[in-house]
Amino acid sequence: MGMCLPCLGGAADDVVVTPDPETRRQQLAEAAEKRQKETAYRGVKNPEAVERKRKKQEESEKQEMTASVSGGGGLKWQVG
Length: 80
Prior knowledge:
3 helices, lipoprotein, myristate, SVIP_metazoa
């Protein structure tokens, strides 16, 4: 019986302290972002290149939108 008591004395050292709710929420949010990023680039050998290509495409679309709004896209109708 006396053999179990020494191991119970160190049990207080093994207790895991639970972080406060705000810290826990932040950790869960970071983990969720990491999972989403990993699944988004699953099977892609070079995720940086994909990201650069996507940004370049977004910029070109944005330029097209501003050009079409401001100048009509550079094409003008000629009548007669």
